[in-house]
Amino acid sequence: MSWPEAREEELPRMTLLEHLEELRKRLLVSIVALFVGFLLCWNWAREIFAFLAKPLTQFLPEGEKLAFTGLVDPFMLYIKVAALAGVFVASPVILYQLWLFVAPALYRHERKVASLFLLVTTVFFVLGGYFGYAVAFPMVCKFLLEIGRDFRQVLTINEYFSMASKVILGLGLVFELPVLILFLARLGVVTHRFLLRHFRYAVLAIFIVAAIITPTPDIPTQSVFALPMIALYLLGVLVAWLFGKRPETS
Question: Where does the sequence pass through the membrane (predicted)?
């Protein structure tokens, strides 16, 4: 199964300066989208943080709250919370700009799937973030609280948000792996055979990434991050097999 190839169609050629100008345009639109997303989320920053804190606060004794050590910490926290939420709000625009940047390297019939690309990338990004929020990070919080149960807890808002945003954004980006593989396969950079042949190295790389994203060094928690990535890699293998670039026949 493959998309029809259009050998007669010549892809547009762009100079280095034209590529840089196109990149500047896409980055500018993405920055504006992020700023708009930030403004939209600012009014609800307090509620958004309360939502983000649930993976931890659900394990705290009733009435116990996160602490802050600097007078401006809550204000800066809400700025960062609005920025993080703004990333997810603006993600359709940002991903569409990414599509527009790479579209000149694709054939006309491939560019027609822009709406599908936008939907899939947005869904995978949000799913990754939600998986980090609802599944992976609560396990991390529970593990760390159990380790420190013999000590008095002083949990700061900055430390918590830094850890939570790293996990949520990291998994949101990791869940884009099948989309990345699709692009590489369409460009002929990788094939499903190549991906299967190097599966063992991919697993090693995935556990390294999981160790970077995971705030804890224990293998069970890292596996919670790594196993979905392995499943996404195998999904990418399937995508490469179905939609990868076919060798030209004379």
Answer: 27-45, 75-101, 113-136, 167-187, 199-217, 223-244
Element (H, E) at 16: helix 16-42
Q: Which of 2-6, 42-46, 132-136, 206-210 has the lowest mean pLDDT?
A: 2-6
Could you list the beta-strand ranges (E) of the chain: none
CA distance 226 to 228: 6
The answer to whether the beta carbons of residues 90 and 126 sit under 8 Å apart is no
Mean pLDDT of 108-127: 74
- The pLDDT of residue 2: 45
Q: Which residue has the higher pLDDT, 73 or 92?
A: 73
Res 6: pLDDT: 45
Q: What are phi and psi of 72, to 5 degrees?
A: -90, 0
Alpha helices in the chain (DSSP H): 16-42, 45-52, 54-57, 73-102, 108-111, 114-131, 137-147, 157-174, 177-186, 192-197, 199-213, 219-243
For residue 188, the SS3 value is coil
Token output for 235: 């999904």
Exposed, middle or buried by CB within 10 Å (0-12, 13-18, 19+), for 147? exposed
Cβ 128 vs Cβ 171: under 8 Å: yes
- In degrees, to the nearest 5, what angle opens at C-alpha 162 toward C-alphas 209 and 140? 60
Q: Which residues contact 137 (CB under 8 A, 6 or more apart)?
A: 55, 163, 164, 167, 168
